[in-house]
Amino acid sequence: MPSQSSTQSGKSIFISYRRKDSSAITGRIYDRLIQKFSPESIFKDVDSIPFGADFPEHLDQQVAGCKVLLAIVGEHWAGDERLQSEDDFVRVEIEYGLDPGRDIRLIPVLVEDASMPSPGQLPDSLKSFTRKNAIQVRNDPDFHKDMDKLIKSLAGTVGLNETSAPARPGFSPYRIASKDITEHKE
User: Fold this and answer.
1) What is the sign of the dihedral through the CA atoms of 136, 140, 43 and 60?
2) pTM across the whole model
């Protein structure tokens, strides 16, 4: 695990997920989060690891410095045999988030009709994960409503400051029913 000095380089929100289990909805979650929080404050592996970086070392640094670890739990998350391996990156991320010596708020995010795993499905080091209060982020039509609840919790409870949606070339925001919508310019 990382040293205390490595915690300086971490991001505020760390997204832990299995690509095979929940890649698409995790991408949607990330996209909503960067509309409300600075993209520099959110870690998602494929978007945040520099090319050529030592993957495990960089991962350790980011988990060590986060305030919130969002554990994205898909339907097959607990049944994935890799979770039983002590070297599994997802397991290591969750173990680190569960460490009572760290000030990390671990939030299970249940997606794709997943339910909270039972203690018997998890290795001993992850059993306390099942006691965490989870949020369910459902597919449409409930996705944005569920994400609004998560974002409000992150902003209010953890003290992260919301920002306006980042300006992106080729896109302009407009409002419908009091909501900002971003539309691609043709």
Assistant:
1) positive
2) 0.80
